[in-house]
Amino acid sequence: MKTLFYIVLILCASQFYGQKSNDTVALSDLKRHLNILASDAMEGRETGTPGIEKAAVYLETEFKRLGLRPGNGENFRQEYVTPEENLNACNIIAQIEGNTHPNEYVVVSAHYDHLGMYNGIIYNGADDDGSGTTALLAIAESLMRLKKMGKGPERTVVFIAFSGEEKGLWGSSYFSDHPTLPLDKVSCDINIDMIGRIDPDRTTPDRNHYVFIVGQSRLSSETSKILNTLNSKTQRLTLDEKFDHKKDPNRIYYRSDHYNFAKKGVPVVFFYDGMLGGDYHEPTDDIELIDWEIYHKRCNFILDFTMSLANRENLLKRDLKE
Ligand SMILES: [Zn+2]
């Protein structure tokens, strides 16, 4: 009886802290990575500066520590020269080998660059896109835990942290022209750019459980169905499709790295919190404004979605034209 009591106690404690449950993203991982990536030490992570180099080293070190394989031959880095200013820059690519379809892929991407510093003020970009970069690391950690238990993905999952996004989607543009894997074998690019905040302008009752999804209706008729079925069984978020509308005046579909995959015909889904005003591209985009509860829910949903694409029978059909 006493043993049973202790087992129940341990189970309750692990549930309460949500730290290392095997099939969820750990909140502690999100906090740890974002505290580092959005710190002043990274100097705003502007492409081509020493600040972003610190972030690149951090990403490489973490992917290595977690046991992921380099995604560019022997290297985690895909180096390129920026189209303006001829600066050296790099994307960081890491992957987890699929069990049964190692030569088919699901890409999970986020940009790790931000705006840098102006007049001595650091733009930390905690939400943009510290939140997406952190999500890559935390989701990778969850997948590695699953793999160690024999429940790893059936297709290869490739994590790509792009640089140069804020300058004009440079890193993803270079990658889509020099891919490290065959793009016709990529089921989907799941792009994460800003998922850590609740938009202060959102006043609907779902403000604590929504996420915008963009791009899902453009190239594959299967994507929306998979997202909605999964959501109804898991997080039950409002999957807001407002920015997916072809006449969206903000042109959100064209404004982050997934668009360079879509241009090559790869189905995409972009996850986004909808922050257009407030602290967007302001030095106030700091970690204190992250809403951990909704951020954590969104990460768990993206983890589940990644696994469902990695483990379903087929690659997403490319049956729609934009
Ligand atoms: Zn961004």
* CATH topology tier name: Aminopeptidase
Mean pLDDT reading: 94
For the secondary structure, the number of strands is 11
**How many helices in DSSP terms?**
9
Q: What small-molecule ligands were found?
A: zinc ion
CATH architecture: 3-Layer(aba) Sandwich
Name the CATH homologous superfamily.
Answer: Zn peptidases
Pairing-aware structural class of the strands and helices?
A: alpha/beta
Catalogue the unreliable spans.
9-19
User: Main beta sheet: strand number and arrangement?
Assistant: 9 strands, mixed
- Rg: 19 Å
Q: H/E series, N to C?
A: HHHEEEEEEHEHHEEHEHEH
Number of domains: 1
CA(first)-CA(last) distance: 62 Å
Bin the strand percentage: 15-25%
Helical content (DSSP H or I, runs of 4+): 25-40%
3D architecture notes:
This protein has one domain: Zn peptidases (Aminopeptidase), CATH 3.40.630.10. It is an alpha/beta fold and 322 residues long. The strands form two sheets. Strands 1, 2, 3, 4, 7, 8, 9, 10 and 11 form a nine-stranded mixed β-sheet that branches. Helices cover 36% and strands 19% of the residues. The radius of gyration is 19 Å and the shape is globular. Helix 2 crosses helix 4, helix 4 packs across helix 9 and helix 7 packs across helix 9. Zinc ion binds next to helix 4. The site of zinc ion has 7 residues, from helix 4.
Main attributes of the structure:
322 residues; binds zinc ion; alpha/beta; Aminopeptidase
Describe this structure in a few short sentences:
The protein has helices at residues 2-17, 27-37, 50-66, 126-148, 165-168, 170-177, 223-233, 258-262, 292-311; strands at 69-70, 77-81, 88-96, 101-111, 116-118, 121-123, 155-162, 186-192, 210-214, 238-240, 268-272. With 322 residues, it is α/β, with parallel strands linked by helices.
